[in-house]
């Protein structure tokens, strides 16, 4: 590889630590005086975004999880309907396409076969339905950028570790800019709200940096995982897709079976799995779902489960027997929270894999870019 490892043992570790810079690079030139520039998405973006009635996001793997987070943002922050689906399902199921849909593909590589096929398929009805296509992609001159009307390039830099980290973070930054710019152009949010969002994004590199500073604590926690066969990740709201991403990272590189559940669904099945052998990881930012999450944690505790809770400065979940609380961040906002809370989960997967001695950057059976079906 032409990209140097420097002091890092693995590309994945290097890429996790590059995230503050990747965010800076992705924001660079996309904001002017606290306003998001529509032209960051292409010169026709402004006229297209004004007409969008709903958003359909298509992606695979980690990129799909970025899409899932943004669904909460689109509907909650700007009230625009948003659907998210994995490409391999969407392309084979004759989906109903609504008029004035913005069809968004998200991809690190720009070459994922299923995502590309879904895009090619939608283009056949694009004129008739007034559908526009946008790709959020990390590779310029890739198949997805060539085939889309609009492109937003995430400036994560080359990502070599098969398990995606910094690309995901910059995809979320891109999606937050998209939500903000559409919201603004359609007068769904005020200028003041836009400014608040932009200021939050500008704080993100520092927030990620402070989450990274907790590496030693996470390393200690990882020691309790190496002999486990299963793990359960819990979250609510945007933390549910972040839990999915945390579980995916853990399975990809440590080969421990991991599952994510929306915490409210616990009682509909996974509670039956809880005993002292299955670690439960919960993500607990201070928000209006925290009290609900806390009672879910008590349900786990009552069954003898061992919990690790990642919280922020204001959550105050409180450590007790069987419940280990780690404060990994200061108080974070609706957009910055999922991006920041993802960081300790990346570090957790990395350190568990390190203890297990797996091939972190090249996990068995997986490819960085899946260009055949
Ligand atoms: C593979 C990679 C994942 C990635 C997914 C989608 O499975 O191992 O890390 O998230 O493909 O790739 P894309 O390049 O489309 O984001």
TrEMBL record:
Keywords: Aminotransferase, Cytoplasm, Glutamine amidotransferase, Repeat, Transferase. Its EC number is 2.6.1.16. Its main location: cytoplasm. GO terms for cellular component: cytosol. It catalyses: D-fructose 6-phosphate + L-glutamine = D-glucosamine 6-phosphate + L-glutamate. The keyword Transferase applies. Residues 45-188, 221-363 form the SIS domain. GO terms for molecular function: carbohydrate derivative binding; glutamine-fructose-6-phosphate transaminase (isomerizing) activity. The active site is at residue 368. GO terms for biological process: amino sugar biosynthetic process; carbohydrate metabolic process; fructose 6-phosphate metabolic process; protein N-linked glycosylation; UDP-N-acetylglucosamine metabolic process. It comes from the Bacteria. It is found in: Cytoplasm. Catalyzes the first step in hexosamine metabolism, converting fructose-6P into glucosamine-6P using glutamine as a nitrogen source. Homodimer. This is Glutamine--fructose-6-phosphate aminotransferase [isomerizing]. The lineage of its organism: Bacteria, Pseudomonadati, Pseudomonadota, Gammaproteobacteria, Thiotrichales. The gene is glmS. The chain holds residues 251 to 623 of 623 of the full protein.
